[in-house]
User: What shape does this take?
Amino acid sequence: MKVEYSGYLGKCKPLIRKLVEELSKDYGYVSVLGTDTKGRSYRVSRTGTIIKDYDFGERGFVVRIHNGINYSEYSFNEIKEENLGDIMAAVHSSLGRAGNLKRNIYDIIVEDEVAENFQGEMEVNPEELGQKAILADLTDIRDKGLAESELVVNFSASYSSSHVSKLFLSGKKELEQSYMLGEARLLSLAARNGKIKYYYKSASGMKGYEVMDEIRDKYRETVQESVNLLDAKPFNPGEYDVICAPDITGLIAHEAFGHGVEMDMFVRERSKGADYLGKQVASELITMHDGATAAKQVSSYLFDDEGVMGTDTVIIEKGILKAGISDILSAGKLGTNPTGNGKRESYERKAYARMTNTCFEAGESRVEDMIASIKCGYLLEGMYSGMEDPKDWGIQCIALLGREIRDGKLTGELISPVVMTGFVPDLLKSISMISDKVEMEGAGYCGKGYKEFVKTSNGGPYIKAKVRLG
Assistant: This one.
């Protein structure tokens, strides 16, 4: 079924069009982004049930104008015929003055005439399914998880949905989109002799409640792995051959040349990537993408928060750094075409160059052959966290666990947690084998530094690399 577009934005559209037309009499560029996002989150565990509204729900608008020097923005959360004049007066008084401050200069955005709309698809509408049915399903999964082992001190089943609708109007553009995002997670917490470990399974996508089908029957595996982790062994830090599962591959892609090629950082001279365009930064086996159309996941869309159509950007092609990802203003400053990566945490926040769906392309190897090629190393899985420094290209990725490989076979021994560090080009150039299937994951958020959280997804195939573990 099609995801329904916001009735509120539909009702406001004529007034937004009128606002754009009136302001365009005084300013060389005017656009308005309208957002209407709502949703619910559910979590059932041994300790209780939590139901709350989606954390990033919002309803409001942001107008952007060219003030004669650069761009200014004004946000508001309600528009009616009777307050239209007040909105225009506020724009004129607060945004129309260039003042005497030293500012960056930006040219007026040149747009093509575009009128498009997009409605996502879903199989089970959580808004129609209802709270009672969702809680009953999550409770059943929770009970099954708790019954799996006496070592389980808690088990939770979670589901969240967000129904996103957006409208973008400017002098030449009329864009609308609506879609449903679904996320599901199982988490098992096991304890023995004062030692506590956890393991999780998650799923996400441009989906309705059907996303639960991907993990509903994985409660047994989730519990068993949390119990197995209680026997995780210490290991000697050092350099190892490793196989990275798709979630860790995605974490590497996200941290290495996701943040590292956000082109607003090029403008600020905060990214080493700007100096390496056209140069080899990875193994010739590596081709990497980012874009709203690079995959169908939680960061797919028709247009970004600046009205730029979503694209698929090839960041690395056969080891060569080819391009970055940009918002419309950083692209203008650098003389490049915008890539449709301008994203806002909310209509009240600035648009930044941000990742969407970031992944490595598949290769030709089989996972079993990759494992067989390792004398002494680990299979890393379970994305925990990551960070990098775009200026110096240091990277740190933390995996929930590592499965020991000896003489080409998995021994069953585990290490946990596993910290992987290194210099980005060294890590990427060490990749020697890539599996033949890509998997994507997007059950989380990405911040710009310590703030500006937005939905992203990342993934890829299994990769073999040489890394430093600690």
About this structure: Residues 7-23 form the longest helix (17 residues). The first strand starts at residue 30 and ends at 45. The chain has a mean pLDDT of 95. The radius of gyration is 24 Å.
